[in-house]
Amino acid sequence: MSSHLIVLPVVLPLVAGILLLFQRQGSVRVKRLIGTGATLALLLVGIALVARAAGGEVTYYALGDWQPPFGIVLVLDRLSALMVLLTAVLAVGAVVFACAGDDERGSNFHGLFQWQLMGINGAFLTGDLFNLFVFFEVLLLASYALLLHGGGKERIMSGVHYVVLNLAGSSLFLIAVGILYGATGTLNMADMSTRLATLPAEREGLVVAGGLMLLVVFGLKAAILPLYFWLPKAYAAAPAPVAALFAIMTKVGIYAILRVYSLVFGEAAGPLANLEQAWVWWLSLGTLVAAAIGVLAARDLRLLVAYLVLVSVGTLLAGIGIGTPAAVSALLYYLIHTTLITGGLFLLAEMIGAQRGQAGTRLVKGRPLRQGGWLAVLFFAGAIAVAGMPPLSGAIGKALLLAAAEGMERAWLWPILLLSGLAAIIALSRAGSTLFWRSTGEADGQRLAHRQWFGVAWLMAAAPLLVVLAGPLVNYTDATAAQLASPESLTRALLNTEGDAP
Amino acid sequence: MESLYAITTGVLTACGLYLILRSRTFPVVVGLTLLSYAVNLFLFSMGGLTTDGAALVDGAGDYADPLPQALVLTAIVIGFAMTAFVVILAMRARSEAGNDHVDGRKHEAGEGRR
């Protein structure tokens, strides 16, 4: 059983999704039970994976027992285990929230949700470039359908942009994979990194082209500056639990950049090493500036949170752009924080909108909130965390990242990152005072379901918990960054015959 | 052979890209289809073009790289499903927005508002 543990995050949602497909017309209760149960089981698997990877050993699962570099492998190291656990934690909050009624606004919500989890987990675990493409497609297909869940003009129109852009991105991904295979003769990422070291000089141009095309594809998923225009509309239009789950989707892009460029184009790649660094660094700063302006200009709470997701993307990319182990460790800590908090804010925005009648989440004068007290407390906590003010988790993440910047990087990063934080504070305080204080008429909203409260509280609890557990967590992210900085351990584990393949 | 193959792929890609940049959903869908054909052709050639070889390893003779064939099959299946999905989506968008502009606008920016 334990040897099959690595493949469970892919198989479990797949099986749950198939079961849910059989239950498509079945009772709501059974569907919710299967969906929530599978997500909770995924959480346990995620914890087991982190416990297994924490020692620093890299293990892999060879599908069909075809040994690398020929077969497809799922690789478990500290980074992939952390990402799988993070996905599961986020998914638990989102799926419980959805059980309050959002799941019945369209068909087969829970099945699609599980398949999206399968795609995300697969993308985090796979060690094969083409397999990464396949899992990207799995998670994208599920996300297309989830984005349109419930229908409505806004969702359909933003869905058209999202789908067309991602299809074009997928084509580009295939071209890049084709070029890299043509130049190196392998698709296994670890194998590719060893072959790049002995690459004939005339093929260098091809590999550079392929590598940078991959950056465009991952940049589209992660929503970097010139490629982010689809994100605010799509995230603001998506149903709340889906938007919360989408909080991890941009991080899939970040993860792919981190993984591919640290492993394939790491120090061992000789002249091709750190191919992406210069691009990522400047684009991250641009993303931060554009996102901060977007945050200030947003006239709708959901749109505001969507731009806050973009701010976090810029911050994370800046960590990749600096590229030292300290910066990578800081960005991983910030990644956990921002995924959970922005996910929680999307859910919270839905709850606030539900109680304001016609005004919804738009930042205009509306009806007073029926349960305004608790909503305001949660909003306040979320705003402090996401803007990066002490004492909650955002402050620690940002402080770690600021401390990791050196020399000229410091001169660029400090003002831009701090000013984007200021923009977030201004926009959030304006939004909060409009939502909670500027109101007319009688409160007549429905009382909110306990499941919704649980979903938001589950995600928002990350803010204080990440501070309390900051010590062990930073130890783990430090170890992860060290592991990423020396990809030889991964290459050795994969390409030697000893591994614990079943 | 190589130049013919390269020109075909290039022309398909160029046409696909041009059509994707159009403002109505139908040309965009056709453009995506053309682009996926071009990508499939490109993938097929990524292991190098083999002429007069066996499709599978067959004794001592020349043979084609089997991996691109497997990959291109996967890519075709995924591309086909995606095209079906985007066609349905375009039709939904047409009925929701009342026109087939990708932004749901009635007129082009230059033509002025209704």
From TrEMBL, chain B:
Q: Which domain of life is it from?
A: Bacteria
Q: Name one Pfam family in it.
A: Oxidored_q2
Topology within the bilayer: Multi-pass membrane protein
Alphabetic keyword roster: Cell membrane, Membrane, Transmembrane, Transmembrane helix
User: Can you list the GO cellular component terms from the UniProt entry?
Assistant: plasma membrane
As for subcellular location, the record says: Cell membrane
- Sequence intervals crossing the membrane: 6-21, 28-50, 70-91
Assigned protein family: Belongs to the CPA3 antiporters (TC 2.A.63) subunit C family.
Which NCBIfam families does this chain map to? PRK09094.1
Tell me what this protein is called. Na+/H+ antiporter subunit C
The record lists the organism as Halomonas alimentaria
Lineage, uppermost ranks: Bacteria, Pseudomonadati, Pseudomonadota, Gammaproteobacteria, Oceanospirillales
